[in-house]
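User: I'll paste a sequence; please echo it back and then give the predicted structure.

Assistant: Echoing your sequence first, then the prediction.
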Amino acid sequence: MCTRYISPDDYEIERAWHIGARTPERWVKEMHPLYKGPFLRRADVADYARELVVGQWGMIPPWSTSHIPESKPKKGEEKGKRLSTVNARTEGMEKSPTYKGAWTRGKRCIIPAASYDEPNWESGKNVWWRFRRADGAPWGLAGLWDTWTDLKTGEVWHHYTMLTMNADGHPLMSRMHKPDPKLPADQQDKRTVIPLEVHEFDRWLTCTVEEARAMLKVPPVDLFDAGPVEA
């Protein structure tokens, strides 16, 4: 799971994705869960294929009474527990109460990232690794987006999540995250985010759900420039 990444500046996003006008909303570069960050979605205006939106990193379940993602409360409880929704498992997302609406309605997005971090436990302790593209370009990560309305204030929240998939067989991504000693190497369920390539951007935003499913794939190892984060 990815829980922190570096977001490009608006001019870097404009240069890489040719989105036209910039958004007046600002964001911090070092992104963490529930921070507001930029994502690109299909524009409603016919003249533009893409538009830049700023929203919360972390999907808000439809039943939430707050923008903080929470589970459905059990009988006798006033609130559910805090949920981690910055990453969405591609396996079963079409059945997930949190993600199925966005997935089935084609609310797919591209999340710009200069780099992202993952924990490596090969030394017996957590060593953060940073992942950049080997060609120096920013990542365009596959995601979902939606909107949620605060019934108390009427405020509309845009929110988004990164899609992830199993990477147990990947020579690099299988080295990330803390291993479960009870499970064999090929059943750890190590995860990877899903980078999109330039020729896939518009298709990801506009294609059918079936076509989008076929685009979900584990990234090739030669795409990465990765190593421990320097102190």
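The mean pLDDT is 92. The two ends are 22 Å apart (CA to CA).
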